[in-house]
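Now for one record.
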Amino acid sequence: MLDFNTEILRVFKKAPHVGEVLMSYEAEKINNLFKMLYSEIEKRKKLFVDFGGDYNSYIKNSGCSIESLVIVIHNITAFIAMYEEKEEDIAYLTRDFTNYGIYFFLTVSNISVVRYKLLQNFKNIYSLQLNDSSEYISVLGYTDGVIPSKDKGRGIFKIDITYEFQTALAFK
């Protein structure tokens, strides 16, 4: 997890399924993460080649399993502002890594600041409440008029149709 916002993700640091929580000022660790990701994709390419070439085929056809990796970047806008040289890496990694069981979750406070080159790599976009109901169309496209209710933690996402969801706090 990379936290470029409030450093709230520190609460997950000791969770057994979290490898590391990196803060914006930890440049060496961030660079090492990217090296590890490139190394991991090369390893998985070689591992998956005889089983269909992707994560799902490997799991289905090999009889083996390999963990999925999830990379969270909280506030991608700040990340790119601080590590501009990594923007191309993010665009590449988010485009190809799902084939290898590596998934990215990015948060952003304003979708308009995310370049199309990066945005097009994400099939699923979830939106919490926005200031103006017309903004949902620019984020998700046509939403059938669905907007989230004003209850705290509500949002919408679109797959085939638009759905409303409710988030919850896992702790105080």
